[in-house]
What we know:
The complex is a heterodimer. Chain A is about 35% helix and about 30% strand. Chain A is of the alpha/beta class. In chain A, strand 1 (about 5-15) and strand 2 (about 15-25) form a beta hairpin. The longest helix of chain A is centred in the middle third of the chain and has 17 residues, at about 160-175. By secondary structure, chain B is an all-alpha fold. Chain B has a domain at about 5-160. Chain B has nine helices and two strands; from the N terminus they run H-H-E-H-H-H-E-H-H-H-H. In chain B, strands 1-2 form a two-stranded parallel ribbon. At the A-B interface, strand 2, helix 1, strand 5, helix 3 and strand 9 of A face helix 1, helix 3, helix 4 and helix 9 of B.
Amino acid sequence: MTPTVRVDHLTRRYRGQLALDDVSCELRPDTITGLLGRNGAGKSTLMKILTGQEFPTSGTVRVGGENPLENDAVLRRMMFVKESQVYPDIKVKRVIEAASWFYPNWDGELAGQLVDDFELPANRAVKKLSRGMHSAVGIVLGLSARAEITLFDEPYLGLDAVARQIFYDRLLADYAEHPRTVLLSTHLIDEVADLLEHVLVIDRGQIVLDAPADDLRGRAVTVSGSTTAVDEFTAARKVWHRIGIGSLASATVAGPLDDLARTRARDLGLDMEPVSLQELVIRSARIGTENGAGQESERISA
Amino acid sequence: MTSLVKVARLHLVDRFGYTWLVWGVLALTFVINLAIFAVIPLTQPSGNFTFALVTIYTFMVLIGFQAATRFLPFAMTLGVSRRTYYFGTVLLIAALCSLYAAILTVLWALEGATNGWGLQLHYFRVRWVLDGPWYQVFLTNAVLLALVFLTALWCGLIYRRFRPDRHGGIPRCVVGPGGRRGAAGDLAAVVAGRRQLPVRVECACRQRDAGTGGGRDRRRRLPDHPANHGLNSSSTRPVRSCHGRAGRVRR
């Protein structure tokens, strides 16, 4: 069975800088979780602590009830592909060969397919690869290892759109056949929105959003139309964001909207659009940086 | 035990480094030495002396350094703990250095039997160091090779721990992280063999996000930095306590 990853009151302080601030969360087994947040929000730090590569200042990490720190029994069930993974000065095929020894579920066939898909030159030394190809090597390892817990930290730095799509497709296909826990940190939120089952948003070391992706989809709605109609509709609602140009306005209101509200909006001639995951993340990150963050965040959860 | 063997195998995946690099360059310097001493007259009445055998030791330094800077981060990605990596590497080096020392001893014996390759050359019979009986020569070579490798490995670890911040140019030993203990404490933790390590081991994985701090600070000072586009609605940041636990949203 895939172990559960639990984090309790995790704090990581570098001198004069709080990278993680009392983070508590749980990665449920066999789900794809997105770890989203701005640069320097603490995504990488969290992933490194989860895999025992970094030491927490305080708090605990438990993978299947055990501390992953220097614990081979736990670590061999995990794979962590970092954004700028360092490889020895060896050929791509040797990197793949070496990785295959460490994972019992390694799928050599899949690795071969991925190498073809990404058009990786198997005989070239890793240090001579381009930025994107370097990232592709990490993806090949991460997917082929079929580790019970796979962590990808910005896995596609420098990868083109086609290669990224290959990654999403392959991840989803392989995940469907071999369910496992995947934690994916990324900036390209809209691209992965359909992939994620659970979303964790981290901002300045704190978890600001921790919810199933399905819940998030109805959490907010953007209505747009004439200023008067928008004002009337939003009068009794919580408004996250509002912009107006002349007589037109657009407002993001907390959802979900019931049938009555929808009918009302239609009667007022308003257009309704669900808020994308990306926008939701931007809002929650912004809320974290503004004063009165407490109330705003509660609005999201309301 | 098997994971130790896997780590040892991981090193040997670098076939070039452990075979051609070490022995190829040694062979090259040997040929050059032979050529030089073949054309010049005897330098000393007791024979021709050279310390060119140091080449093989130089390459052990290189391999040892890479073991810390390149193989360790890779091994950690593959789910190997630092301790397993260290002991696996030591295991490999013990075996490899014995093999290398055996080859060097055979060559040492050959050199003695052929009167210094017919040139009274002392290439493998290094004066004062490798002058004893064969088993002393074997032991001296084996121990010295392993020692040189491991010293380089530890130097590599210290380098990775304290190497200057790529962006800020300030060495990590000055800036942090946390800075509660020095390198000695960190490195000791590698082999401490405890689950709950009282000290933090800062390994190679640290350096890649070394720029985060500096970079973020720079962005904070510049509200209209592109990275803040669309996100940074207020240029003044609240005190952290203002958005403490209340800022968290959980369902």
